[in-house]
Amino acid sequence: MTGIDWLILLLYFMFVLGIGVALKGRTKTSTDFFLAGRAIPAWVCGLAFLSANLGAQEVIGMGASGAKYGIATSHFYWIGAIPAMVFVGIFMMPFYYGSRARSVPEYLRLRFDEKTRSLNAISFAVMTIFSSGISMYAMAKLIQTLHIFDAPFHSIGISAQCIFHIGILTSAVVVLVYIFLGGITSAIYNEVLQFFLIVAGFLPLTWLGLKNLGGWTGLKARLDPSFTHSWAGMAHASTNRLGVDWFGLVQRAMAAKSMGAARRTPLIGAFPKMLFPFLVIVPGIIAVALPAAPATEISGSVLRTPERGIIPYKIDATTGAPVIDKNGVPQLDYDLAIPSMLLHYFPSGMLGLGITALLASFMSGMAGNVTAFNTVWTYDIYQSYLRPDASDQHYLWMGRAATVFGIALSIGAAYMANRFNNIMDMLQLVFAFVNAPLFATFLLGMFWKRTSGHGAFSGLIAGTAAAVLHHAFTLPRAAGSGIKGGWLAVLHTYPSDMAQNFWTAIWAWSTCFLITIIVSLLTKAPEENKLVGLVYSLTARAKEESLAWYLKPASLAIVVLAGTVLLNFIFW
Amino acid sequence: MWMDIRLPIGILFAILGCILVAYGLIGDHSIYRQSLGININLIWGAGLLVFGLGMFLLGKRGMRPDTQNEPGPAASSPDR
Q1: Domain count within chain A
Q2: Looking at this predicted complex, what is its ipTM?
Q3: Which of A129, A379, A522, A564 is most buried as measured by Cβ atoms within 10 A of its Cβ?
């Protein structure tokens, strides 16, 4: 990091905080704070939603998975996220936006009952805190591992150890300030800014990397075929990203200014999402394909690299020795795939932009989760159970207070996250427990009017229990039992963490689906007149003949799906 | 009325573009060995500058009161 890199980073921080300050005067009611006054155009919501997901999970996690599993990682997008987004835009959004629910748990209350809502609100609150903490941890760890910010701190006598803590605190304070001031509008504005920054900072990596290796053909020649054919590695990659995407999405779509805009939000988001594998997964693959090179001069890094690729070994934070698995093989630190690429290819100037993009991605991930947390806390927990009849100003105040303690809790989660090898795996773990069953509940709730509140509630509990039990009885290969699974007994061993997570999600989903149906049939059917506008068969179809064809959700959906199928064929 | 988000984005990227272009022109050129001999600061900086100016102009247009209710570019039009 030279002067010019610092200049770019400072400029970014100034803009982020400036947006918060500029929006402070416009945030007067709780609707402004939590739903942006429902006045945001579709394209802004769509990009903001993408960026909220483009946090640690995507940039670091997808780069890491690309390096570990190859292009098969793109299934997160091509068969997971994108069809899910299309489904949400076409089928689900009319109920969400039309019901005027302010959050996912609130929709559950309207459709089912109070207990289903509180269960969801609480698990959702926990989940957002975890996600935000993971982003924070990943950022601080990265700063510490890369030694990019060491020089100025050394000159004032602060040790390298403290940089981890400083990283956590700084990111926490910046996110706190801009959300505290401008609420979700501020978060959405910054997310859109971050989206463009992330593209600007990472796209040249793919370009330079592919040029260096002689294009896609050159890259293929250097690697095992399973890395570059998206369907060849399917034995262990793929999972259920649905839940994660869809939560952040709903809140952003609720901020949209009309039903049409709300339905277009996920569809517009799906376009750039189709191309994300090239932005984050391909650089990860390039990082393993490159010949081993000494760390670049500017990094001042002391990391050792293996024979091939530029990804360094994973170092245990407390002992300073390389981490080895059960068979004594040293583990690569896949989370460093993308950052190593930045340091490898970018000279000063571009490096500043790349590092800024990296930090931006962490902060947008954090901000997305913190805004989700303060909404759910304030509307679904505080207003519903603790203090129902306070003034709007009081809830606005509570939203700001929730931002403060949400971030404080995230800091706690960040220190916990320190124990996991791949950030993605931990996210999958938490989300599989909570989200996979939830998706079954929504599907049944929206399309089967017989689904009852008792059915939904017991299905959710059973699904989560199934996830926990599955995790307790299985283990990925070459891992010791404990936090990775198998803490009751090891009945089955999976080839990788990712396969285990995938099956955890399947078990959770199926259990919830079955139990919800059984219990619904055994309990009283909900009254149909209360379900109007909440269930597909009891809701009038939206009329949209007046829209230009390219604004209609259905035509957007067809284009998105056709593009996805095409990409699947190209990278077969 | 909301502040058009394309304005701050345009300004930030135009400034970033200027910084990178300037550095690519006057800075030490030996650093580009790392980026395969390509002056990435100059090329990418110019790209960002163009993008930033474009966003800024679109944002300006979007803020003009008379265009508020007309269909804007791509998907940004209101449909109420």
Answers
A1: 1
A2: 0.81
A3: A129
